[in-house]
Amino acid sequence: MTSVTDNLNRFFETNGVKHTAQREAIVREFLNLKEHVTIDDLLRRVRSSHPGVGYATVYRTLRLLKEVGLADERHFGDGKALYEPISDHHHDHLICTRCHKIVEFENEEIEAMQERVANEHGFKISGHKMELYGLCADCQKEEAKKKR
Amino acid sequence: MTSVTDNLNRFFETNGVKHTAQREAIVREFLNLKEHVTIDDLLRRVRSSHPGVGYATVYRTLRLLKEVGLADERHFGDGKALYEPISDHHHDHLICTRCHKIVEFENEEIEAMQERVANEHGFKISGHKMELYGLCADCQKEEAKKKR
DNA sequence: CTAAATGCAAATTGTTTGCAGAAAC
DNA sequence: GTTTCTGCAAACAATTTGCATTTAG
Asked: Closest Cα partner for B57 from B96, B98, B22?
């Protein structure tokens, strides 16, 4: 089980990556996330302890994190990208189309089947994204109300 | 089974949508696609028969198609959006991370299981996206060569 | 001392919008 | 005739890059 600190060290040990205060702040803040962030979210958090950090540095650091395999970037349709730390166990997303709540889940069986399908097409899988869209329990109720 | 012409008619019958030459060209070209296109791809195709059509018109028409439920927009990581006609049977994507080849597939079992997982979380599903990333057969060979 | 990182502003890219003229209905 | 389109150019938003300066190793 890799801890946040492990990953942080792993990050700075990568070839010629220098250890600066702002990187430390960004990477640490990011790796502790359990949720998705936009660049602005992350920058805001980082600035609360390190004012003066610029957008460019966050973008650049996030790109590094992606390259090292510690961050995942996604686009849920709305303009801006969302980032999340790649955690030990992979998970997928259930997204409510009404209130935009996001629930994470994982399911071994589905993953196994994905593997099989990929093999049938000659692919060797390295990752995947799966998003299920629909109404969450609360919003189903709300929708039912509206119809009355 | 809805045909291209059915969908084309359906499109122009939508509330106050006017029937213009450029729309006809764009929509027809688009609905006949079996693959994904970028805006540029589509514009290029359309211009071969209707030169002078502008980007804006393609963007606007594609937005309409999305609203009417005839087009699907996605972002596979690279900057630009890809569009594809929504066909009768849903499918998912296998994407080669090296040559960017895209293979479509469908799998009933996985879909059934997605449904089940969603139910467990109280969700009522209306759609999903699933993308498997990895190396296609050809690129696996290429990669093997490189290592020698 | 040297190579790499920072912050800023300017540049780029993909997409959207305002508007005057042109078509559709 | 009125409303909806079109094409263009200008506007925008997200992200990237160039560069002078600072900082880590």
From this structure: B22
